[in-house]
Design goal:
Length: 357
Amino acid sequence: MVLARALAMIAFAPDLPEDVFFEGRDGLWHSWWHSGAFTAPTQEGCIRQAEEALKEAQAVLEKADLLILTLSTDHGYYLKETLSCGSLVANCHKMPSKMFEEKVTSLDQSISVWESLLPLIKAKFPQLHLLWTVSPYRYAKHGMHESQLSKARLHLTIDHLIHSKVANANSLHQENELMGLMDKSMLCKKISESFAKNSEIFGNCSEFFEKMSENLLKKSEISSSNIGRDQEDSLPSMQKAAEESSDVVTSSLASTCDTWQHYYPAYEILLDELRDYRFFAPDMLHPSEQAVDYIWEKFRLAAFSPELQDCASQLYSIRQALSHRPLHPESEDYRLFYTQTQQRIEKFAQRFGFIPK
């Protein structure tokens, strides 16, 4: 649920609740919604870092064609004291354990939150495709049995979302058939009710998303006021309105898209294909470096075009060369190696349009 909230904040940038920032026992300022990387000596510094990161993430998302979402666990830590920022925390920041309660997100709640969020995400970023994965990391602290149950619930959530008409609401009007007003009304009501029920996750930002869904319904009613017109006339006009409008909601009702959610079986590759403890790190919980390379190679072969595979191979080779630390940098051999590497970088940049780092 922390991931869902983070994606919602990046996509729509409602104002952060004031009490999301607090002064910790170490005298530093932290955020209940952020990791320790955003910690700062002052509240202003903490807020500034969070806002800058938010803007950077928004810029990336606006240009992205593919967003990979990895679900790891459905366990979460909640503040016993409910604040305006909600009670779900992204990091406990070494605060006393008595302040928190560990909860398991039910399958119904997980589906409800994501089903409400995904239509809005697709509306604002129509070019975006989602690639779901489940982390193969095993949560031993929950017990291996509970860890497996948690992974199973995550798999069920993803499978439901990929086949959900609500989560794929942008494609409800297929083959030039307009989405009916009743369907739109039910969708908006479902989204609004879900955000209202999950205020412990979104805090007072739930009201922001409720209003967004209400706006969706209003736009739906306007768009459907001429529902009796010939479809050949009405559909192009709706599409044109969506193209001309920057409103997130209008575009969601007028756009059509092929399947935009996908699944990559990283979890299954490690546990069902590799199936050996030698593919785990010494802690027996994380994948080993060899396993990570194997899963990446499988993904590269399945998802990359031949040109992109060539790009990735060259990029890896160049980065290996750049990471080389010579014993004798003044030697003729290293000078030749350096010159050849720079030539490879220039050729790479000319062909693929960016400079390897």
